[in-house]
Amino acid sequence: MDEIEIRNMTEADVESGWAMCRDAGWNQLPADWRFLRSGNPDGCFVAYGGEGIIGTVTTWNYDNKSSWIAMMLVAESHRRRGIATRLMQAARDSLAECDCVRLDATPVGREVYLRLGFRDEFPLSRMTADEGLREGMLQCDTAGAQCAPVSCSVDLSDIIALDALAFGVMRPKIMEYWLQNAPEYARILKSDGKTVGFCLGRHGRRFEHIGPIIAPDANSAAAMFLSLQKSLRAKPVVMDIPKRCADWRRMLESFGFREQRPLIRMILRNNRNPGEDGITFAISGPELG
């Protein structure tokens, strides 16, 4: 273990990180890795061994009000040697001034994070439609709200504000990146001229990833998602959803989604800006919550 160095991730490390990500079957693209590193370069780390990069972790700091840890990955040949713990300790220590640290964990990763002081917040489900979407027969009652493509800077400002209401802190760079990545998946929902919901998505190596979806109710979330059917036709799709809404899950299952695996949102320290979880129907993904 002494020969393994934990150091800051550099631009030159991105391709190695993505190669590990690809080997692990993850969905991210190289551009996603560069974006994640850009958010907090001093808080992104790699584990370096004699043969090269064997582990990664990224962080994002939201003005010390909240923070996020992601891309925790160790090469399969080097697992169970304490490398994940060392990477997590480096990430956690870099966020020592933050009110809270959050992440989305797999059941296996959860065991590492519990030992580092994290605790469970709430469960999520990774839902996938591996063979594309079935034609949904659902009729969505949105009580007069209108769904439309995102088209202007005013819409983006509304999206940033509504995301902050749901997540608890402002995430303008993330919303901008998601919108630029896949504008064809961007929808906004308005009622009486006021923005009440939105949907974003992005391209991935294996799946088209839809989320976040913020909406006042499951019917509104479904209406925005249904408007993407033409763009998503015959494409495998992934979505990470809170487990709390059984109606929303049933709707997704009617479109051909099935649970691939559970996830657990976890937290370290106290979240003074918790947001409104009840309006979140799909998260941005484990990369950023």
**Overall mean confidence score, pLDDT:** 93
Which of globular, elongated, flat, extended, rod-shaped describes the shape? globular
- Helix-strand topology string: EHHEEEHEHEEHHEEEHHEHEE
Overall radius of gyration = 19 Å
User: Helical percent range?
Assistant: 25-40%
- As residue ranges, the low-confidence spans are none
Q: Which structural class should the secondary elements be placed in?
A: alpha+beta
Please give the oligomerization state of what you see. Answer: single chain
Note the beta-strand portion: 25-35%
Q: Note the total helix count.
A: 9
Q: What's the architecture of the largest domain in CATH terms?
A: 3-Layer(aba) Sandwich
CATH fold group of the largest domain? Aminopeptidase
The description of the largest β-sheet is: 9 strands, mixed
CATH class category name of the largest domain: Alpha Beta
- End-to-end separation in angstroms reads 31 Å
Could you explain the architecture of this structure?
This protein has helices at residues 14-23, 30-39, 83-94, 107-115, 153-167, 172-181, 218-226, 229-232, 246-254, and strands spanning 5-8, 45-49, 52-62, 66-74, 100-105, 119-129, 146-149, 187-191, 194-202, 208-214, 237-242, 258-269, 280-282. The radius of gyration is 19 Å and the shape is globular. The chain has 2 domains: 5-98, Aminopeptidase (3-Layer(aba) Sandwich), CATH 3.40.630.30; 126-282, Aminopeptidase (3-Layer(aba) Sandwich). Helix content is 30%, strand content 32%. It starts with a strand and ends in a 7-residue tail after the last strand. It is built from 9 helices and 13 strands. The model has no long low-confidence stretch (mean pLDDT 93). With 289 residues, the chain is α+β, with helices and mostly antiparallel strands. The strands form 2 sheets. Strands 5, 6, 7, 8, 9, 10, 11, 12 and 13 form a 9-stranded mixed β-sheet that branches. Strand 2 (45-49) and strand 3 form a beta hairpin.
